[in-house]
Amino acid sequence: MTFIAMCKDILAHGFSSEGEAVRARWADGAPAHTIKKFAAVNRYDLAEEFPILTLRPTNLKAAIDEILWIWQKKSNNIKDLNSRIWDSWADETGSIGKAYGYQLAIKHQYREGEFDQVDRLLLDLKENPYSRRIIVNMYNHADLHAMHLYPCAYSMTFNVTGNRLNAILNQRSQDILVANNWNVAQYAVLVHMLAQVSGLKAGELVHVIADAHIYDRHIPLVEELINRPAYPAPKLLINRQVKSFYDFTVADFVLENYQSGQQIKNIPVAI
Ligand SMILES: Nc1nc(=O)c2c([nH]1)NC[C@@H]1CN(c3ccc(C(=O)N[C@@H](CCC(=O)O)C(=O)O)cc3)CN21
Ligand SMILES: O=c1ccn([C@H]2C[C@H](O)[C@@H](COP(=O)(O)O)O2)c(=O)[nH]1
């Protein structure tokens, strides 16, 4: 299983940041050190199975809500998000700065007219699916100074092979325990959504993680987690009536037979 193999690799061969100056902090102010691996590359065949972790539950509804917040609502304000996961990075107005959804709402001039990056993507998938130029990129240097946290999952490259929509998710940094299951499941759902509204089938998701890390306080939790039994992948059911990307809601997704281990309660999140 991909997650277990990656964690074993990081735990056994990871490089420790002890002794280095690190940015992230624990709630008590202590530096949040990690052990990390450079460039974890994981492939998920979405035609084969839905890649959601079964060692512990993932709140898929909340993960989809966040992906819709970024890609569909194109919002950077936690008032438009139904979970509290971004609270620590929001200012008094609820904004997380010019990050994620803010970037996807910006309109750009193309030869075909003015579009934001999501509308540009939807147009390409319908009209020019075999293009090798279908990229969505949120890592905008001009605005980094105004982002409360630099985008972690920052770009997607789409590539259609036959009738299959494949995608590479580029992530510069990942908190493996808190966010790997979350990011993989939500981007897998995004590929399914885009495929459905473009008359395509979901193909492969390739997740490239430049800095794949386990925080020091997560090490015993990960060691326990990866020794649990895994269960067969559940089935993701999607409302096939939805024809427009902008019509999807969290209610259009149902996980059938999601069997998993116990939740790990109160995982500390480095800020
Ligand atoms: N250190 C760190 N790790 C992260 O994963 C992370 C950040 N910082 N900063 C910004 C966002 C916030 N992210 C988060 C934060 C918390 C959860 C989390 O607690 N998820 C729970 C339940 C969430 C819920 O039900 O509302 C889960 O079960 O997955 C997920 C993603 C991902 N990102
Ligand atoms: O979608 C996300 C958002 C954030 N993260 C993690 C990765 C890092 O642990 C922190 C960000 O700290 P940096 O020092 O900016 O790398 O947030 C994630 O895994 N997934």
TrEMBL record:
<feature type="active site">
    <location>
        <position position="152"/>
    </location>
</feature>
<dbReference type="GO" id="GO:0004799">
    <property type="term" value="F:thymidylate synthase activity"/>
</dbReference>
<dbReference type="GO" id="GO:0006231">
    <property type="term" value="P:dTMP biosynthetic process"/>
</dbReference>
<dbReference type="InterPro" id="IPR023451">
    <property type="entry name" value="Thymidate_synth/dCMP_Mease_dom"/>
</dbReference>
<dbReference type="InterPro" id="IPR036926">
    <property type="entry name" value="Thymidate_synth/dCMP_Mease_sf"/>
</dbReference>
<feature type="binding site">
    <location>
        <begin position="132"/>
        <end position="133"/>
    </location>
    <ligand>
        <name>dUMP</name>
    </ligand>
</feature>
<dbReference type="Pfam" id="PF00303">
    <property type="entry name" value="Thymidylat_synt"/>
</dbReference>
<feature type="binding site" description="in other chain">
    <location>
        <begin position="213"/>
        <end position="215"/>
    </location>
    <ligand>
        <name>dUMP</name>
    </ligand>
</feature>
<feature type="domain" description="Thymidylate synthase/dCMP hydroxymethylase">
    <location>
        <begin position="3"/>
        <end position="266"/>
    </location>
</feature>
<dbReference type="GO" id="GO:0032259">
    <property type="term" value="P:methylation"/>
</dbReference>
<keyword id="KW-0808">Transferase</keyword>
<comment type="similarity">
    <text>Belongs to the thymidylate synthase family. Bacterial-type ThyA subfamily.</text>
</comment>
<dbReference type="InterPro" id="IPR000398">
    <property type="entry name" value="Thymidylate_synthase"/>
</dbReference>
<keyword id="KW-0963">Cytoplasm</keyword>
<protein>
    <recommendedName>
        <fullName>Thymidylate synthase</fullName>
        <ecNumber>2.1.1.45</ecNumber>
    </recommendedName>
</protein>
<dbReference type="GO" id="GO:0006235">
    <property type="term" value="P:dTTP biosynthetic process"/>
</dbReference>
<dbReference type="GO" id="GO:0005829">
    <property type="term" value="C:cytosol"/>
</dbReference>
<keyword id="KW-0489">Methyltransferase</keyword>
<feature type="binding site" description="in other chain">
    <location>
        <position position="183"/>
    </location>
    <ligand>
        <name>dUMP</name>
    </ligand>
</feature>
<comment type="pathway">
    <text>Pyrimidine metabolism; dTTP biosynthesis.</text>
</comment>
<keyword id="KW-0545">Nucleotide biosynthesis</keyword>
<comment type="function">
    <text>Catalyzes the reductive methylation of 2'-deoxyuridine-5'-monophosphate (dUMP) to 2'-deoxythymidine-5'-monophosphate (dTMP) while utilizing 5,10-methylenetetrahydrofolate (mTHF) as the methyl donor and reductant in the reaction, yielding dihydrofolate (DHF) as a by-product. This enzymatic reaction provides an intracellular de novo source of dTMP, an essential precursor for DNA biosynthesis.</text>
</comment>
<dbReference type="InterPro" id="IPR045097">
    <property type="entry name" value="Thymidate_synth/dCMP_Mease"/>
</dbReference>
<dbReference type="InterPro" id="IPR020940">
    <property type="entry name" value="Thymidylate_synthase_AS"/>
</dbReference>
<feature type="binding site">
    <location>
        <position position="175"/>
    </location>
    <ligand>
        <name>(6R)-5,10-methylene-5,6,7,8-tetrahydrofolate</name>
    </ligand>
</feature>
<feature type="binding site" description="in other chain">
    <location>
        <begin position="172"/>
        <end position="175"/>
    </location>
    <ligand>
        <name>dUMP</name>
    </ligand>
</feature>
<comment type="subunit">
    <text>Homodimer.</text>
</comment>
<feature type="binding site">
    <location>
        <position position="59"/>
    </location>
    <ligand>
        <name>(6R)-5,10-methylene-5,6,7,8-tetrahydrofolate</name>
    </ligand>
</feature>
<feature type="binding site">
    <location>
        <position position="270"/>
    </location>
    <ligand>
        <name>(6R)-5,10-methylene-5,6,7,8-tetrahydrofolate</name>
    </ligand>
</feature>
<feature type="active site" description="Nucleophile">
    <location>
        <position position="152"/>
    </location>
</feature>
